[in-house]
Amino acid sequence: MSNPINVPHLDRELDLSNTGRGVWLVKVPKYIANRWDKASGDIEVGKLKISRIPGQKAQVQLSLSEAVLCLKEPGEQTIPKEHRLDVSNVTRQSLGVFSHATPSNMDSVIPESEKLYMEGRIVQKLECRPYADSIYYKLKSESIRKASMPQRQVQQLERIVQTFKPVSDHKHNIEYQERKKAEGKKARDDKEAVLNVLFAAFEKHQYYNIKDLQKITRQPIVYLKEILKEVCNYNLKNPHKNMWELKPEYRHYKQEAPVEKKEEKESSDSD
């Protein structure tokens, strides 16, 4: 399989001179790790005290240095000085610590120049735990308080803040204004007045679509449909599909008279 970036794979030598050295894997609280990150490389960060009792596990204690305890920002809580380390053996695992060194001239760093070392094999795991004293309880309560605070808070503004003003109109507001303008700015007329306009229109034509009726009445579509459902029928079949016509009880068309004359003539012929 070829290298995707066309860089040849190079085997590097690994210094195994410290393979037999046993090292500890220590887990420390976050507040200790933060203080150690602030500390420079030339100060003492703490001391370990190991007490060995025959027939029992070794007791390990960690005491942070005063230089580390003083590395706190204004308003930051004081951290505990004394800690105990719970020891547990490493079983069914092979863990190691590795490091690499690069030349001092960083401009000429190339992968082949890095030196790899095995610093040792992990033989024990230790977990750093603080003692339950007043300093720890105060630190823990403060961390719980900060974690429970909401990320967003309501703030009352005493004066106008320009940054909170909208820079442009919202899309749905623009659409609403355009739809309102298309429907006309005329308010709803009285129902009886709208019915009179509708009846006058249906005396001229028997069928209308909704757009024509809206232009005639100049009423909003929703309001117009409410009135049409009371006095009109909506056709769903051809030849007058999607058109409105008056219900039979509201129809008074003038073309009925010629039909009656035709019926009278037929009856006279039969006599």
What is the gist of this entry?
The protein is α+β, with helices and mostly antiparallel strands and 271 residues long. The chain is built from 8 helices and 9 strands. The protein has helices at residues 30-38, 66-69, 134-148, 171-183, 191-202, 210-217, 221-231, 256-270; strands at 14-15, 22-27, 46-51, 59-64, 82-89, 96-101, 115-130, 232-234, 244-246.
Question: How is the topology of this model organized?
Answer:
Elements: E1 14-15, E2 22-27, H1 30-38, E3 46-51, E4 59-64, H2 66-69, E5 82-89, E6 96-101, E7 115-130, H3 134-148, H4 171-183, H5 191-202, H6 210-217, H7 221-231, E8 232-234, E9 244-246, H8 256-270
Parallel strand pairs: 1-7, 2-7
Antiparallel strand pairs: 3-4, 4-5, 5-7, 6-7, 8-9
Give me some keywords for this one:
single chain, 271 residues, alpha+beta, seven-stranded mixed β-sheet, two-stranded antiparallel ribbon, 21% strand, DNA binding, General transcription factor IIF subunit 2, WH_DNA-bd_sf
